[in-house]
Amino acid sequence: MTAQRTSIHGQWSSRMAFMLAAAGSAIGLGNIWKFPYITGQNGGGAFVLTYLVCIALVGIPVMMAEIMLGRRGRQSPINTLRTLAAEEGGSRRWQYLGWGGVLAGFIILSYYSVIAGWALAYVFRAASGMFVAASPEQINAIFAALVADPERLLAWHTLFMAMTVIVVARGVRSGLERAVKFMMPALLIILLVLVGYAMNSGKFMDGYHYLFDADFSRLTGKGILIALGHAFFTLSLGMGAIMVYGSYLPQQVSIGRATVAIAVLDTVVALLAGLAIFPLVFASGLSPAEGPGLVFKTLPIAFGHMPGGTLFGTLFFILLVFAAWTSSISLAEPAVAWLVENHHMTRVKAVTWSGIAAWLLGIASVLSFNRWSGFAPLAVVPGFETKTVFDLLDFLASNILLPLGGLLIALFAGWVMSRASSAEELALGNLGYRIWRFVLRYVAPLAILLVFLNLLGVIDPLRRIVGL
Ligand code: TRP
């Protein structure tokens, strides 16, 4: 057994603390805001099925790999990859994978904070009774008025980024562990209440079929890439967030069991959000392809008409803010850990600078919903004709950087790391370990490569050549 390292940043107080932090990172806007709207933009059931397959075949094995690497390296992803590469006889260049992760996290944090700002704004809209008895048109107008005003969006974005900076500055242990413990069950309960409401909306089965009937004629190559990218996004994979959380994990915790529990919980929350939202979409004559405003245009209709809706609505948006908060801190952590390790900054200073940088980039997303809403920088590229700066940042980070990061993490953990090291660190049963290693070495990388090649238009000609 190799001598065990310890992290200079500390360690989770228990297995439970890690579970809460990792599930808190995974469950966020990705589940409740992003999953429904991209499902609606990509045709429903077939997209959902593809996403579920990606979670099982790529997400779970890569998550185990990330936690395993983090715990073995016990440093920020950049330094972990450098240390482990040296130890396992790999190239020094693996540390650039850590850099790619810092870049992806920085981009995601920049717009994540803007959307979390919408959720903050909606806490106050719900609490003031603005949704009571409102028609779908009025709800729509409330959303339109919010995003049309760059100053307001900037204010909420600033507040959320400040909240993120404060928690990361204090270290993950204090305060946050307790908040997540209460937040997650409460969020589940409210989602169940909303699904119950949707059941009585008259269109529950329409929503259900939309989510679960797979019509593959509606799935495009780009849709498959988006499903894959979202599997990474929703599980916080591909950029080192879960790796850095793994670096604070006590040695005796079982990585396999923790991973499966987190992935299942995360998926359940996303599917519940879909079941709550799509019936309302059909019942109120909205389009599933409404875009990033989907959640904000549907759920308030329910809050406006159910008994106790003002209270439930307020609580729901508070929980959504919490869910976003426990996610955003993990986006910043890899960069902060690296700044502390290599530049001997204090945590406070490191996160303040990281936060300011992400806040500045976030302004581009703020403007994408108003002043720049007609500005499509890549309009000449087919498929990108109407993509705003916000859309492009999300596409780049979620659908290019995260899958690429995931591919490289799988290759590193599966091919560079020795069998002895990964087996020791994972401590799975023999069969479990063999399955994990096979999927990580072959299935996950091939799946990611195929999705990329398919998008580049390489698969169809190849298929014709081999006569399939
Ligand atoms: N998983 C979070 C969500 O679904 C977002 C998130 C947090 C994330 N950390 C990440 C996404 C790291 C990608 C990488 O809302």
Describe the structure.
The longest helix is centred in the C-terminal third of the chain and has 35 residues, at 309-343. It contains 19 helices and no strands. Helix 1 packs across helix 8, helix 5 crosses helix 16 and helix 8 (176-199) runs parallel beside helix 12. The chain starts with 14 loop residues before the first helix and ends with a helix. The chain has helices spanning 15-26, 29-41, 45-73, 77-87, 95-127, 136-147, 150-170, 176-199, 204-212, 221-234, 241-246, 255-283, 294-305, 309-343, 347-368, 389-416, 419-426, 430-455, 459-466. The mean pLDDT is 94. The chain has one domain (15-466): Up-down Bundle (Amino acid/polyamine transporter I), CATH 1.20.1740. It is globular. The protein is mainly α and 468 residues long. The structure holds tryptophan.
By helix and strand content, what is the structural category? mainly alpha
Radius of gyration based on Cα positions:
22 Å
Straight-line distance between termini: 49 Å
CATH top level class name: Mainly Alpha
Helix content: over 70%
Record field, number of beta strands: 0
Question: Which ligands, by name, code or SMILES, are bound?
Answer: tryptophan
SS summary, helix count: 19
* Low-confidence parts: none
Order of helices and strands: HHHHHHHHHHHHHHHHHHH
The overall average pLDDT, rounded, is 94
- Report the sheet with the most strands, covering strand number, pairing sense and barrel closure: none
Q: What global shape is seen?
A: globular
- Per the CATH scheme, the topology name is Amino acid/polyamine transporter I
Q: What is the CATH architecture assignment?
A: Up-down Bundle
In percent terms, what proportion of residues is strand?
A: under 5%
